[in-house]
Amino acid sequence: MLVDKGVHVMVKLLSGLFLCSRIMSAASQIPKNRVTLLIETILKKQLNPLTHLEVINESFSHTGISPLDEPELSSHYKLVVVSPLFENKSIVQCHRLVQQPLQDAEVFNLIHALQIITRTPQAWEKSQNVPEAPKCQGGDGRRKK
């Protein structure tokens, strides 16, 4: 009986890993949507010089909706922004430098959640570790049952 339970747990674990890898693979094959492109354009223009920028659409992992079913889904984003503009500034000041141009362009009317990671080039060179987004309780109201 104990062996059967262990096998059952292993099958569930492997099934979950397979599903997760399929979703991530599908997400990487989808072209950037309009909100992703808008965020990239705004930040590249406003935060100059910009050493590194990642605009990561994490909507699919929060809503449970496949990116293949809804490629324009854009509720949850993570930004990784590296710039010398962040030198000698607090985290709050760095986040304001990122948030202000997005607010001016009314991007926050288009998304539900935004995680911002800011680094100086020196800090990014030391570690490119990016924390996972916190678990979201609300999604964007389109979570599949």
What does this protein look like?
Residues 9-27 have low confidence and may be disordered. Helix 4 (91-104) links the parallel strand 2 (76-82) and strand 3. The two termini are 32 Å apart. The protein contains five helices and three strands. By secondary structure, it is of the alpha+beta class. It is globular and about 40 Å long. It has helices at residues 2-29, 34-46, 59-63, 91-104, 121-126; strands at 52-57, 76-82, 113-119. The protein has two domains: 1-30; 32-145, BolA-like (GMP Synthetase, Chain A, domain 3). A three-stranded mixed β-sheet has the order 1-2-3.
CATH topology of the largest domain: GMP Synthetase, Chain A, domain 3
Pairing-aware structural class of the strands and helices? Answer: alpha+beta
Q: Give the proportion of residues in helices.
A: 40-55%
Give the CATH superfamily of the largest domain. Answer: BolA-like
Total helical segments: 5
Read across the widest sheet, the strand sequence of neighbours is: 1-2-3
User: Shape from CA axes?
Assistant: globular
Distance between the termini: 32 Å
Number of strands: 3
Indicate the topology.
Blueprint: H1 2-29, H2 34-46, E1 52-57, H3 59-63, E2 76-82, H4 91-104, E3 113-119, H5 121-126
Parallel strand pairs: 2-3
Antiparallel strand pairs: 1-2
Quickly describe the structure.
The protein is of the alpha+beta class and 145 residues long. It has five helices and three strands.
